[in-house]
Amino acid sequence: MRPYLSSPGKIGALTVKNRVIMEAMGNALSNLDGSMSAEDIAFYEARAKGGAGLIMSEAVSVSSNSGRANPRNLCIDDDKLIPGYCQLMDVLHPYGCAFFVELYHPGRQGDSALNGGRRMFAPSAIQCGLTRQPVIAMTTEEIACMVQKFINGAIRCQKAGVDGVLIHAAHGYLINQFLSPYTNHRTDYYGGSVANRARFALEIIHGIRDACGPEFPIAIRISACEYLDYIGLPREAGITLELSKEYAKLFQDAGADLLDVSSGIYETMNTAWEPTGFDQGWKVELAHELKQVVDIPVVCTAMIREPDYAEGLLKDGVCDFVGSARAHLADPEWTNKALEGRDEDIRPCISCLNCMKTMACGEMHCAVNAQGAFECTRSTLRQDGDGRPVAVIGGGNTAIDSARTAIRLGASEVVILYRRTIEDMPADKVEIKDAIEEGVKIRTLVNPTDFVGIGGKLNSICIMKQKLGQFDSSGRRKAVASGETYVEEFDVAIPAISQTPDTKFIKGTIQLNGDRVVADHYTQATSMPGVFVGGGAVVLDAHRGPEDIVNAVHEAKVAASGIDKYLGGSGELFKGFDQEITDYHIEGDIVPHDRFLTRQIEAEKAVGSFCERNLGMHELD
Question: How far apart are CA 191 and CA 179, in angstroms?
Fold first, then answer.
C-alpha cells in the first residue's frame, strides 16, 4: 500500500522491517528503583504488536544517584537491572520489532530532590530557566566518570540483547548542554570551539563503539535548533541548524549509525513537544538539511500524524525514517493501519499535551486513548455486557464517546438520554451519526431526576419528560418539564454532561463533596455501584472550554471502560475519593460556548509557553 513506509531500512548492521520509528517518550511506568516494570513491558509490547519497525525507549538514566528527572525513571546503571531489559526483548522480538535504549542524563534539567538533594551536573553553573534547580559545573574528573557511565549503560544494553542505543543529546539534557553555547561557557577543552563542545558526546560515541564493537548500532538524537529566539534571545546564542551540520559530521565520523533529528530545550519546549498551534511537518527542513551533509540515515520528527504525509517525506528524500511518539501513544496500531491503508481507523493524536500535563503529576493519561500507559489494566476488557442496559446522560461529545465505548464493550443496549432535541445536541454531527450506526439509541426530550437503587446498586432512573418552550438566547427552544414522569430500568448509568454543574438531584444517593461527585480515579465509579461519571473536567467557564473538553472526553472513555469490570462482577470498584468530578445541570437552561470559535494562536506566539494548550485547541480537531 505504501512502498516507502513498508520498505526495510538499515541502521549500521541492523535491518529494520519498516521505516516507522516510535520515538522516545516518558511514560512514568518504571518501578521506583529504576527497574523495568510489567507496565513498561506491556506499554512497549502494544506498540511492537502495532507494527512499529523500531521503538526508542524512554530516556533511561545512566546514573540513578545524580540523573533522575522523575520518580519513575528507568535506569541502566547497575547489573541488577539487566534482567528487566532481557525480559522486554523476549517480548518484543517475536513481533519483528527492534528496540533501542535511549541513554541520557538530565543535567541541569533534573530534579535535585530526586537525586539526594545534590546540585545537578552541568557543563557550566547556569540554571535551567524552567526547572530552577541548583547546579554545579562538572570537573574534568566528573566528566570522565560520566562518559564511562554512558559506556557502561550501553554495555549492559548489549548484554540484555537490546538492538542498539540512542544517545540523548537533545532537548536540553546534559549532552545537549555541552553542545550548546547557551549552556556551555567552559574555557577548558570541553568548551569554546565547536570541537571542544562536541568532545563530551564524541568521547561517549567512541567509548561505546570500542566497548560494544563495530556491529552494535549507535544512534544519536540532537536538537538541530534550540530556537532561542522564541524566548527573546538571538537564535545564534544557542544551537542552530548550521552548527548542527558541523556536529552531525563529527558524530558520523566518530561512529554514529543514525542521526535522530528533533529540536528545542526546556525553555523552548513547545518546539520539542508541540501543542496544537503547530502544523504537521513544521520543522522537516531540519532533517532534510542535515541529510545533505551526512551519509548515515536520518530520522525526521516533526509532528508527523498522517500516513500519506510520512510516505511523502520518504519518497521525496527528506529523511530515511519517520518518527513520532505521541501518535503511537494515541494509537498503538498506527503503523499496521498505515501500512494496510486503514487511515480512517487511525485514532489521531490531537497534540493537546494532556500526556505531558498528567505525567508531570506522576501518571500519564492520553486524552484520546484511555488504555495508553494502562495496558496492564485496561487492554483486556471483557465484552460481557449482554442483557444489561446502559444509560448515558448528556448530548455532547463526552456523552457520545461514553456511549460508543460502552457499546463496543458489549452492552446489549446503550441509550443516550438528552433533554432537548437531537438537532440541539452539541456533539459533532458526524459522531452522532456514527454512534447511531453502531447501535446507540438516542432518546430526546427526557431529563433524569433521580437514581433508584435496590440493594445498594443502581436499578432504575426516574425520568421527567420534557417539552419545548420559548427560544433562549442561543436560538434554541428551551426544554421545560412536562410534569409527566416515568421509571426505566438501567443497570449502568453514566452522567456525561460537561456544562453548568448542579448535583442536587442525586444528593442522598451518590456521595458528593460540595457540588461535586466523588469518583474513583481509575474507573470513574461513584459510591453507587452501577453509576460511573463521564465528563470528569466539566466546563464551568466557557473560556476554559478547550482544555476541559480534552479531559472530559478522556474521563468519559475511562468511565465507559469501567463498566466492563463492574458488569463482570469484579471486586470493589469504588476504591477511594482521590478525584472529584462535577456533575451536570438539571433545572434551567444551558447556553454552550461556541464550539467553532475557540481562539487559535499563531505558532510563533505560542511556542514560548503553554498558552496554546489552554486556548488554542479546536474541539473538533
Answer: 8
Angstrom distance (rounded) from CA 317 to CA 327: 22
Task: Tell me the torsion sign for CA atoms 157, 13, 102, 303.
Answer: negative
DSSP state of 66: T
The 10s digit of each residue's pLDDT in 146-159 is: 999 999 999 999 99
CA 150 – CA 485 distance, rounded (Å):
70
Predicted pLDDT of residue 247: 98
**177 CB-near residues (< 8 Å, 6+ apart):** 107, 108, 122, 123, 183, 184
Say how far apart CA 554 and CA 352 lie, in whole Å.
Answer: 12
On the question of pLDDT at 602 being above 60, the answer is: no
Nearest to 600 by CA among 618, 584, 620, 585: 618
Contacts of 201 (CB under 8 A, 6+ apart): 167, 169, 175, 178, 179, 220, 247, 251
- Grid cell, residue 249, equals 559530521
The secondary structure element, H or E, covering residue 447 is: strand 446-454
**Which tens digit of pLDDT belongs to each residue from 404-414?**
988 888 888 99
Element holding 298 (H helix, E strand)? strand 298-300
Tell me if 59 sits within 8 A of 69, measured CB to CB: yes
Burial group, residue 50, by CB count within 10 angstroms (0-12, 13-18, 19+): buried
Residue 439, number of CB atoms within 10 A of its CB: 14
Task: Retrieve residue 544's grid coordinates.
Answer: 476554559
Place of cell 530515511: 320
Considering only CA atoms, which of 211, 67, 213, 74 is closest in space to residue 151? 211
Per-residue DSSP letters for 85-131?
HHHHHHHHGGGT-EEEEEEE--GGGS-GGGGTTPPEEESSS---TTT
Q: Which residues contact 139 (CB under 8 A, 6 or more apart)?
A: none
CA pair distance 47, 37, nearest whole angstrom: 16
Contacts of 551 (CB under 8 A, 6+ apart): 354, 367, 536, 537
Integer Cα distance of 531 and 535 in angstroms: 13
Buried b (16+ CB within 10 A) or exposed e, 267-277: bbbbbbbbbbb
The alpha carbon of 65 is separated from its chain's Cα centroid by a whole number of angstroms, namely 27
Q: Which of 162-176, 191-205, 449-463 has the lowest mean pLDDT?
A: 449-463
Pairing of strands 164-169, 135-137: unpaired
Q: Are 106 and 67 in contact (CB under 8 A)?
A: yes
118, 193 Cβ separation under 8 angstroms: no
Residues labelled as active-site residues: 173
Residues 73/122, Cβ–Cβ less than 8 Å: no
